[in-house]
């Protein structure tokens, strides 16, 4: 039970906000995605890897696409304390570009 509590505490602290991306046309009918949301999927405290859940969204927060990305052991180890690493990894895997404000 203690392990589950620690896991829930950890997971709630690594949900990312919306990442602004360069607009991209998605779907049929075609709509424009402008945001990427990334959330770490639950994992055990002794895990060597984890998964990410992502959603592509419009300016009005409509979800246009979603899915999972799984980190390799090397990527999981490289994550360390820098959450921007996870954002950049998701952007790279999805072939998206962060919008420079």
Explain how this protein is built.
The chain contains 3 helices and 4 strands, in the order αββββαα. The protein has helices at about 1-10, 75-80, 85-95; strands spanning about 15-25, 30-40, 50-55, 65-70. Strand 3 (about 50-55) and strand 4 (about 65-70) form a beta hairpin. The protein starts with a helix and ends in an 8-residue tail after the last helix.
The proportion of strand residues reads 35-45%
Query: N- to C-terminal separation?
Result: 44 Å
The major β-sheet equals: 4 strands, antiparallel
User: Which term fits the overall shape?
Assistant: elongated
What structural class is derived from the secondary structure elements? alpha+beta
Q: What characteristics describe this protein?
A:
4-stranded antiparallel beta sheet, 37% strand
What is the structure about, briefly put?
This protein is of the alpha+beta class.
Topology:
Blueprint: H1 2-12, E1 15-26, E2 31-40, E3 51-57, E4 63-70, H2 73-79, H3 83-93
């Amino acid at each position: 039970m203690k392990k589950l509590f620690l896991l829930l505490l950890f997971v709630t602290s690594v949900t990312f906000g919306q990442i602004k991306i360069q607009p991209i046309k998605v779907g049929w009918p075609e709509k424009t995605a402008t945001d990427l949301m990334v959330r770490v999927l639950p994992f055990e405290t002794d895990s060597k890897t984890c998964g990410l859940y992502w959603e592509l969204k419009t300016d009005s927060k409509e979800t246009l696409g979603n899915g999972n990305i799984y980190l390799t052991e090397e990527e999981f180890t490289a994550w360390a304390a820098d959450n921007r690493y996870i954002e950049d990894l998701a952007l790279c895997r999805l072939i998206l570009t962060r919008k420079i404000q």
